[in-house]
Task: structure prediction
Amino acid sequence: MAERMGFPTSIERVERLTPTLRRFVLRAQKQALPPVSPGSYATLEFGDGEKVYKNAYSIVMRSEDGLELTVIVRLAPQSRGGSRFLHEKGQPGLPVWIGSVANLFPIVKTARRHLLLSAGIGITPFLSYLKKMRSIGADYTLHHFCRPEERSAFDALLSEQDQTRVFVHTGLPSEVGLADWLRDESIATHVYFCGPEGFMKWVEETTHKLGFAPGKVHSEHFFVPEGGRPFEVILARSGRRVSVKADETLLEALELADVDAPCMCRGGACGACEVTVLGGQPDHRDHVLTEAERASGNIILTCVSRAKTDTLTLDL
Amino acid sequence: MGTSELPYRPLTFDTDGRRHLFVRENGMLAFPEGVRPAVFEVWTIEHSSLVKVEPDTGDVQMRSTADLLERLVHRLAREKVGLRLYAAGRPDFLAKVAKVADEAGLCSGEIMLGEPVGPERRVFCVHCDTLHDGVSGDTLMCQGCGTKLSVRNHYSRALGAYMGGGEPAVVIAAMEAVAHG
Result:
């Protein structure tokens, strides 16, 4: 049998930051973990005998010896159970498999100035950005938005940072004047943003309205795939039928049925899991396909998208 | 065929821009296509030392290319987000404007280069770093080191010039034969 891709680790330390945020330090059991860059994420696999969860999380830090990776996990109320499992059962010693490490949200090396905008758990990729930017003397500013009750936790998380460049707000971006600050940015500024969907939409629309060129605007949707209506998948090549339950993703159902389906980010951001649709209507939930591709209805990203019809026929 | 030429395109106003600046090498070059935006400035090189810059006008005459480029550097250093820069002229001029824009931190959606007027290119000697303006043929004698240069399709955005290398014609012919089967 082929050796399984990835790296075995186990939870070394757990720290409760807020009632909904926990920091996990994972320690490699064998060799050093792969190198990372600011913005990298890791796909983690964990669980108990009953269910295996596979979720992608931004890497906050990799230790110098490469043996430890730090991630912060938010308890997602609408999640399919992965974050709840880590919050409830993620104790030191729990085995966690690191399936893959990649970076879809790197720092733009040619940028003259970096404006980082985050909300809630969207801070995680920027924790590694801040370290790098400070060390190379880059011109940057971070505006972080959070709920009033979470303020002290984020203040603590950012306490080591350059306080002239890092700001925490408890008001909405539209209330504190973010649009005016954006309008006043130099033409050399690149904007990076990460946070919940409402925040992402506001920043997308505002930067577009102010004339930021698409090449200057970079985002990462930390999208937690949600469940939905159950449906059935017909695999055209074998004729097999696979049921997708309400609380699992299409990709998870395929994996459970031992179907060799492609995937990478597991969050609708990279496009690696694209599969051809031969019948049925997809319910697109990704951030990769163009409007034209969505309308055509003949491709689907299995990691987040579902079906509007009772069955979906895939070229698998 | 893969080349690394500058991305030339017929100029059209980008409606996503908030302010628009058009720089042109002479007054005969047409404005970008489309509805003229409310905030629009034109800088035109008059090639005359008699020109005086009128402040606070959207239609500015410049004495020379050097004059325009120098002002552009200052302007872009102070410019806020939302500007779209359009340039029209010969390849030499477009290369220089693109270089100033790149150095100021503009990206591909913010700088638009029109179809170049004429074949003249700027050529960089890879042996001695001498820059040659207005090269219209495919070969030239380097003014720095005297090497006979052949102009390659390799454009360097950082240098704002095409690469000129001194491979003898026979070597180039052999390389091209290998590359193109």
Remarks:
- Chain B has two domains: 8-114, 121-179.
